[in-house]
Amino acid sequence: MTTAIIITISTLILIAYIFDITSSKTKIPSVILLLLLGWIVRQLSISTGFYLPSLTPVLPILGTIGLILIVLEGSLELELNSTKLRAVKKSFMVALWPMLILAGTTTFALVYWGGTSTKNTLLCVIPLCVISSAIAIPSVKNLANTQKEFIIYESSLSDILGVVFFNFVAFNETFGLGSFIHFVGQLIAIILISFIATGGLSYLLSKIDHSIKFAPIILLVILIYNVSKIYHLPALIFILIFGLFLGNLDEIQRFGWIEKLKTSILDREVAKFKEIVVEATFVIRVLFFLLFGYLMETAEILNSDTFIWALVIVIGIFGIRAFILKLYRISLLPFVYVAPRGLITILLFLSIPDSQLIPLVNKSLIIQIIILTALIMMLGLIFTKKSDDNLEHPFAH
């Protein structure tokens, strides 16, 4: 049995690799194929009578590690200089406003329709409002560099803002002045921790001369993230700061204290570190979506009770997105299509206590919204021609 499982997992990951390297040609998001592949494996296991023990507890573990690595991978690719401030500002606004508007309108509608608690409804709705960088970033490989840059900024910021928003609602019974003061204190604390931890990890990266050096760094990043979460700190900010620091050493080496890290050595190590992160991210992302696909039941996908709600919410997602893009004078194409829900949506939904779940927001609704947004992104990218970097920059206005 062990041998059969190893062969199956190895084969599935290799198939996922084929999906990944062909996605730029087919324009089909790999997440669609991974979910489908996981679902097919489930049907085969049922038909053959081959059942695995419950793997549901493994999903949040893979999701958490995947989220850390995906945000780290994205932030390592981002350039941070004065010319990028406009891009960061617009990406932040395009990530923030659709999330707040969609969360507010959907919460109002569900409370009015179902008569549920406003706080519990908002908590359940927030996961539906977050763009998944795990799906968005790999899906735009074929776009121009300036367009990919926008997607990386926006989806990474959406993940972070979504988690911060979710935690703020989850860990506060009331939303008064005291809650906001406490929230600001948490932000200041995680920023201080981030700078200290980033300096320490960068020093280790430049000093360790053992043949094994990258695995301990990644494990320390995961450890710091999860310890920060225990104290309800927005730990993804640490991941973003750490990645931006390592990815922009050339921009910040003018500061005297940076020279103590021996940037010439650190530059070489960071290049190797990026390769390890990319490889690890691929494997964890594949395993997560394969497992989620395996755990999906056909009845959940075809649930007619939630499909109308899923359709209405998806229309809201893209309608609000189009309005905000136009408001900030950003070209609608191809950006309006790139608003998939995925890993972060699942991860936040799974972290909601059973006592705070509402009937209208369930696993069926989550699955349908993930599939619909991914399909719309796929169709949009298929009919969007690859643009050239010399064309209008998305942040030109």
Task: Please characterize this protein's 3D structure.
The protein is an all-alpha fold and 397 residues long. It has a single domain (2-382), classed as Na+/H+ antiporter like fold, CATH 1.20.1530. The protein has 16 helices and no strands. The longest helix has 33 residues, at 263-295. The radius of gyration is 21 Å and the shape is globular.
Domain count: the total is 1
Give the N-to-C terminal Cα separation.
60 Å
Helix content, binned percent: over 70%
Q: What is the N-to-C order of secondary-structure elements (H for helix, E for strand)?
A: HHHHHHHHHHHHHHHH
What structural class should be given to the helix and strand makeup? Answer: mainly alpha
In terms of DSSP E residues, the strand content is under 5%
Mean pLDDT: 88
CATH class: Mainly Alpha
Number of helices: 16
Major sheet? none
Q: What name does CATH use for the topology?
A: Na+/H+ antiporter like fold
Low-pLDDT segments, ≥5 res: 388-392
User: What global shape is seen?
Assistant: globular
Examine the secondary-structure arrangement and name the CATH architecture.
Up-down Bundle
Radius of gyration, taken over Cα atoms and rounded to an integer in Å: 21 Å
In total, how many beta strands? 0
Detail the topology: elements first, then pairings.
Elements lengths: L1 H25 L3 H19 L9 H20 L7 H30 L3 H8 L7 H7 L5 H26 L6 H31 L6 H17 L5 H12 L1 H4 L10 H33 L2 H4 L2 H24 L15 H8 L12 H20 L15
